[in-house]
């Protein structure tokens, strides 16, 4: 199944939404959109595309109503998601965690283009396995440009068969948070200021904090 979401924020009005496939978007407040699963997705073989446009003068908060549970499909274990953010206004992305269950494999790509006056907060939370599971795998890449100049190129892999996988103790959970242009904020992990402005915070461990 291929699911596709388009969210276009509009100053002073509710966002414009287009939804296709197993994922839906709902405007819960004038400046807030929640993603809602309309079917069991992502399963192995599924793809998800989300594009968010926030023009100058607009604000948007993108959330989800529940954690995303990734499961293997009947013919493939691999599912993919792609998020594209175009930010000239203010965008906050704070989705519930992605849980890679059983032996599923999920590949995530996030691309953000921020204009000169744009503001972005982007948080990703990932957990490998439900209780008693540790065989899944997740990879995530994050590419951010500001004013058409590279700000960040970042990649994380978690789970079975990844470079960080070790029988003696390998992380099975991570939290990554990017803020631009803000450079200092509270975070359970390490906060690094970026040369082009903003900051990236990362944390890894066995289980996501409650």
Question: What fraction of the residues are assigned to beta strands by DSSP?
Answer: over 45%
Number of helices: 0
Topology, number of strands: 17
Query: Which structural class best describes the helix and strand composition?
Result: mainly beta
Give the end-to-end Cα distance, rounded to a whole number of Å: 32 Å
Order of helices and strands: EEEEEEEEEEEEEEEEE
Please outline the major beta sheet.
10 strands, mixed
Radius of gyration: 17 Å
* Shape assignment: globular
Low-confidence stretches: none
What is the average per-residue confidence, as pLDDT, rounded to a whole number? 94
Helix content: under 10%
Number of domains: 1
Which tags fit this structure?
210 residues, mainly beta, 10-stranded mixed beta sheet, 7-stranded mixed beta sheet, 17 strands, 0% helix
3D structure, described in words:
With 210 residues, the chain is mostly beta strands. The chain has one domain (2-171). Helix content is 0%, strand content 60%. Strands 3, 4, 6, 7, 9, 10, 12, 15, 16 and 17 form a ten-stranded mixed β-sheet that branches. A seven-stranded mixed β-sheet has the order 2-1-5-8-11-13-14, with no helix packed on it. It is globular, with a radius of gyration of 17 Å. The chain starts with a strand and ends in a 5-residue tail after the last strand.
């Amino acid at each position: 199944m291929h699911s596709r979401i388009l969210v276009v924020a509009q100053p002073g009005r509710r966002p414009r939404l287009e939804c296709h496939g197993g994922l839906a978007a709902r405007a819960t407040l004038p400046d807030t959109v929640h993603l809602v699963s309309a079917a069991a997705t992502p399963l192995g073989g599924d793809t998800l595309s989300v594009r968010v446009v926030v023009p100058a003068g607009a604000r948007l908060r993108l959330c989800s109503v529940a954690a995303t549970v990734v499961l293997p499909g009947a013919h493939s274990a691999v599912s993919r998601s792609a998020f594209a953010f175009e930010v000239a206004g203010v965008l906050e992305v704070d989705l519930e965690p992605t849980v890679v269950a059983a032996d599923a494999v999920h590949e995530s790509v996030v691309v953000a283009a921020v204009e000169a006056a744009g503001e972005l907060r982007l948080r990703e939370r990932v957990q490998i396995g439900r209780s008693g599971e540790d065989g899944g795998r997740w990879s995530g890449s994050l590419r951010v440009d500001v004013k058409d100049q590279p700000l960040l190129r970042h990649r994380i892999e978690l789970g079975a068969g990844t470079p960080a996988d070790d029988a003696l103790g390998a992380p099975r959970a991570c939290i990554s948070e990017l803020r631009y242009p803000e450079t200092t904020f509270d975070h359970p992990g390490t906060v690094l200021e970026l040369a082009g402005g903003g900051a990236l915070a990362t944390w890894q461990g066995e289980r996501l904090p409650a």
